[in-house]
């Protein structure tokens, strides 16, 4: 028994130490970047990285070490990618910053599909695909930040200028939907039937339906130019979109701006069993409806609420279960065109005592299970990740404490030299199970 409690204390200490080390690394990277004269070219990305750094610091102060570790890793990944972009020394075309659900990558046309992890590099010729519950943030060494949505497949392709020098990168999307934010250089996104060049310091969205061969190109900030192989070309300004169909491009049409969220405030915490929670946002001029998403993760996959037909600028939620939630809103005009999503906000609620009585028994969907990069200290490994709130997690059949928001971390000691395989399992309240297999290497010789 004493050994068990001693191990628990060591496990907590190991995760706390890892979080502290990650925060220190993020702080050092931030100081390095402050001396870079061209840091302003990455203003959006740098602000995002600092927000994750502050969040990690707050989690550490609250002794929520696994959440601190996760936010700190995201900050380090963003800051490292910015530094590599400024110094043009990235080890690959792009790095995965964060992910949720099932995301896979492949090196070249004939490589094997591998499960993606944060900090994995994607070089020229690499493929990345997301499943119906997968999403990822990817930052290229030119400073472009991509948010890859579920059910998307694309190829990373380098592009040379006429003089033979590097002309930036191109995403060749076979199907799906992605958002991107460029920094100091333009970026290109090609679909099977059109190609868009997104201007520097711009935000945009590109979607392609493989079945109908239709594409949608929207500029949220800045602008882009869309061209087809037949020679059609359209300039798309801020808050405009062009639709591609059968080799033709529509005229640019206006889309509404992003709504401003009002209530509740960001990081609102409600300590009440049961009851309802009201969401409110400012009405948008020209909007006849709104799309609302509520999720347990900030990449918005497997959303709890996906409502594309709200007529009012309010919503009342009956959120069951304890945990952290993210929400955002987009406006829809009278022609059915949707604008950009608002910046997301988070809130936290307590579980209702009668949640179990209200659950349906029809849920057959396995819980999401995302794993971070494994941290290694000799024969000690820290395995961390996130799953559906309320799910049970085991690592090598040993139970793991899961935070209210679904995050977890487990310290594992492996005594055998060489390769070992470890299975991570998540089981939800309905008995649905998701499994991930890790391969760990120990060399004590």
Can you put this structure into words, describing what you see?
Helix 1 packs parallel to helix 3. The chain has four helices and 34 strands. By secondary structure, the chain is of the alpha+beta class. 18% of the residues lie in helices and 43% in strands. It has helices at residues 2-34, 43-61, 65-87, 355-358, and strands at residues 94-100, 103-107, 114-115, 121-122, 126-130, 135-140, 145-148, 152-160, 166-181, 187-191, 194-198, 203-209, 214-221, 224-227, 233-236, 240-245, 248-249, 253-254, 261-263, 268-270, 277-281, 287-295, 305-310, 314-317, 323-333, 345-349, 369-371, 375-377, 380-387, 392-395, 398-400, 407-413, 418-427, 433-442.
Low-pLDDT segments:
1-7, 160-166, 352-362
Alpha-beta content class: alpha+beta
Largest sheet: 18 strands, mixed
Distance between the termini: 31 Å
Average residue pLDDT: 82
Q: Give me the Rg, rounded.
A: 23 Å
Silhouette? globular
Content of β-strand: 35-45%
Annotation, overall tally of beta strands: 34
Helix content: 10-25%
Counting DSSP H or I runs of 4 or more residues, the number of helices is 4
Summarize the helices and strands and which ones pair or pack.
Elements: H1 2-34, H2 43-61, H3 65-87, E1 94-100, E2 103-107, E3 114-115, E4 121-122, E5 126-130, E6 135-140, E7 145-148, E8 152-160, E9 166-181, E10 187-191, E11 194-198, E12 203-209, E13 214-221, E14 224-227, E15 233-236, E16 240-245, E17 248-249, E18 253-254, E19 261-263, E20 268-270, E21 277-281, E22 287-295, E23 305-310, E24 314-317, E25 323-333, E26 345-349, H4 355-358, E27 369-371, E28 375-377, E29 380-387, E30 392-395, E31 398-400, E32 407-413, E33 418-427, E34 433-442
Parallel strand pairs: 9-10, 20-26
Antiparallel strand pairs: 1-4, 1-6, 2-3, 2-5, 5-8, 6-7, 7-9, 8-9, 9-12, 10-11, 11-14, 12-13, 13-16, 14-15, 16-17, 16-18, 19-21, 21-24, 22-23, 22-25, 25-26, 27-29, 28-29, 29-32, 30-31, 30-33, 33-34
Helix pairs in contact: 1-2, 1-3, 2-3
